[in-house]
Amino acid sequence: MMRIALIGTGNLAIHLVHALETCNATQLVQWIGRKNTPPRQNLNTPYFTQYQQNIDADLCLIAIADDAIASTAEQLINSDVLVAHTAGAVSIDELKPLKRKGVFYPLQSFKETISVDWSTIPICIEATHTDDAELLEKLASQLSKNVHQISEHQRLQLHTAAVFANNFCNHLIGVSQNITSKAALPFSVLQPLIRETFERSFSNKAFALQTGPAKRNDTLTQQKHLSVLSEEDAELYRILSQSIFNTHNT
Amino acid sequence: MMRIALIGTGNLAIHLVHALETCNATQLVQWIGRKNTPPRQNLNTPYFTQYQQNIDADLCLIAIADDAIASTAEQLINSDVLVAHTAGAVSIDELKPLKRKGVFYPLQSFKETISVDWSTIPICIEATHTDDAELLEKLASQLSKNVHQISEHQRLQLHTAAVFANNFCNHLIGVSQNITSKAALPFSVLQPLIRETFERSFSNKAFALQTGPAKRNDTLTQQKHLSVLSEEDAELYRILSQSIFNTHNT
Fold first, then answer.
1. Interchain CB distance below 8 Å, A180 and B157
2. I need a surface site. Which of A57, B70, B166, B182 has the fewest CB within 10 A?
3. Number of compact structural domains in chain B
C-alpha cells in the first residue's frame, strides 16, 4: 500500500483526493490545506490546516498554485519524504531545498464538479533520483494506463500545446456558443461538426484537414462573417484567419 | 423517387453524389461539372460538362464556389426546376433570376477522402415558396435526421459560428500538433484532454469551463509558454489569452 500525503485544496487536489481514496493500492494518510474545513464531504482522510514536519508517508503531492510551490517546499525542508508538484509549467528546481523531489503532472483540465476518468488521463512524471522516478511511475500506473517519463522542457512544451488544444479551443467554442445563442439556434446543431473536427485530428494532420474562407482567402465570405461579430470577436476572427492564411499560403 | 440534378465537382459535390446515389428515395439523374471527366469512379450517373436547358429533374442542387453561384443561376434562367445552392454564407437572392430558388446547406466540413455519416449532419434549408421548402425538407429528411428550416441571417450566423468551432479550432489543434512534434512527443498524449474539451462543451457553457493561465492572468506561466513558441504562434497566443482574460475579467 502506497501512503500518500496531499497538499492543496483546488480542483486538481479535490480530484486527487477522490482518486487516491478510491484506489486499492494507495492510502491517503493526510490532506493539508489552508481552508479551515476540507472542501469535500464524506472524507476518509485526516485533514490539517498546518504542515506536519516529518510527514509519515511514501510521497507528498503538492497540488497548489504555481507561485506557491517554492514557498511550500521551504516549509517541508526537514522532510525526508519524496515531494512532487503537479504543475505543467513549473521546473522541478522550484523544489530545490528538498532532498527528494519530483513532478507528477496529470494532463487534464480539472473542474471540481466534473468527474474524470483517471485511467485515460496521461500522467507525466519526472524525478531527480531513479528510485523516486520509479515510485512516481508506480503511483501513476495505479491511476492511469497512460504514463510518460518526460523532461522538464518536454513538459513545458506539452503544457503549451495543451493551452492551444484546450484553453484556446474552449474559448472559441464559447464564442461559437454565443453566436448560435444570438441566432436563437441550439448549439447542438454544431455538435456533429465539432465532434468530426477533433476526432479527425486524432488520425490526421490538422493542417491537412483545414477548410474554410481563411485558407482559400475568400474575403467576401470573411466580410459577411465579420458583419455578424462583435468588435472583439471580429478581432479574433481576423488574427486567426490571417494565421490560417499564412500557414497555407507562404 | 425524387429526381435530382447536381452541379459542381468539389468536396461537397462528391459527397452529395455518393449520398444521392446510395439513398433509396433519390435518383441522381445528371451530374454537371467543368472537369472533363467526373472526379469519381464507378459512377452510375450521366456526367455532363455543359448545362442542360430544361433540366428534367425535381430539383437541381448547385455545390460550387460561392462566387460562381450567381453566374450559374444565369445559365439556368429558362429552367422551371427548383434550384438550391448549398452555401452557408450566400444569400438566396444570388439565385434571383430563377423562378424557384432554395438553399440546402449541410453543416459539415467535407474532405474528398474522408467519409461522412449523412444521418447526423444538420441540413439547413430555406426556400422562397412553401412547396419548395417542403420538397427540400423531404430530400434533407431522406439523408439526415437533423433538418432545420432557418432564415438567411440565422444561416450566416451559424456559418460564422462553425468557422470558430471548426476552422479555428482545427487550426489551433494543428499548432498544438506542431508543438508536440517539436517536443518529440506523440500527439496522442493530448487526445484525452481534447476529447474532454469538446465533449464537455456539448452539455455546458464553454466559458464556465474555462481554465488556464489566461483566465487567471498568470503572466509568469504565459511568459514560459511564449518562450517555446515561434513568433507567429506567440502572436496567436497573446491575442487569444487577451480575449480570454477580457471575457472573464471585465
1. yes
2. B182
3. 2
Task: Check residue A43 and give its pLDDT.
Answer: 84
Question: Rounded distance, CA A19 to CA A22, Å?
Answer: 5
**Same domain for A131 and A220:** no
Burial of B181 (0-12, 13-18, 19+ CB in 10 A): middle
List the end-to-end C-alpha distance of chain A, in Å, as a whole number.
57
Helix locations, chain B, DSSP H? 11-22, 69-75, 130-143, 152-162, 169-182, 191-201, 206-209, 219-227, 231-249
B168, closest residue in chain A (CA to CA):
A240
Distance from CA of B157 to the nearest CA of A (A): 6
In 3D, which of B165, B63, B166, B169 has the Cα closest to residue B106?
B63
Q: B150, B169, B204 — which closes off a domain?
A: B150
- Domain holding A213, by residue range, is 155-249
Question: Residue A232 has what pLDDT?
Answer: 94
Alpha-carbon distance A200 to nearest alpha carbon in chain B (angstroms): 9
Nearest-CA distance B145 → chain A (Å): 12
Average pLDDT, chain B: 95
Do the Cβ atoms of B172 and A164 come closer than 8 Å? yes
Using CA atoms, how far residue A115 sits from A147, A170, B103, B210, in Å, is: 20, 18, 42, 16
Of B150, B169, B192, the domain-final residue: B150
Contact B174 A210 (CB under 8 A): yes
Chain A residue with CA closest to B180: the answer is: A158
- When the pLDDT of each residue in chain A is averaged and rounded to a whole number, the result is 95
B-chain residues near A170 (CB < 8 A): 197, 201, 206, 209-210
Q: Is B24 helix (H, G, I), strand (E, B) or coil?
A: coil
Nearest to B189 among A158, A169, A220 (CB): A158
